[in-house]
Amino acid sequence: MNRGLLAALTSAVAAATISGCSGAAETPSHSASEAAISQQQTDALKDGDVSWDEYQTAFKAYQACLREAGFTLSDPRVVDDLMDFGIPGVAVDSGADDKCYQFNWSRVDDAWQIAHEDTSPSAKLVSACLQAKGITPRTKYRDNVELLKQSGIDVSECSTGD
Fold this sequence. Notes:
This protein has 8 helices and 2 strands, in the order αααββααααα. It is mainly α.
């Protein structure tokens, strides 16, 4: 599962922008009003550029956290330049998914996806949707999201290919 591909796309269109689990206690790296994140995630974000290795390492920490909580992701694999997988509903219902994701991977995942937004599955979906409607897409994802809005095309009219 691409963490909310259609939900993220819907949010992006609406806004026209893109906007833990651990056995050992760690000192939160952010203010008390923000969720604590792992030191590994903090280190990956320090230079403002998340590498493929940092992205994969943070994903593996998220996956290990879920495993420690008794849950296994379904069919984790790389699709395009993103991790793709299924999350057990019981992991979501228990709160373990959110806890593990926020602590181990959320900010690294966000940074990675934003840095790769022009080649993302969302970008491909929007581009294909524009082409299907007879509109020549632009190079940048954000420009294409704007084209959708200007053309009065609701994102729900775009096929996800599922």
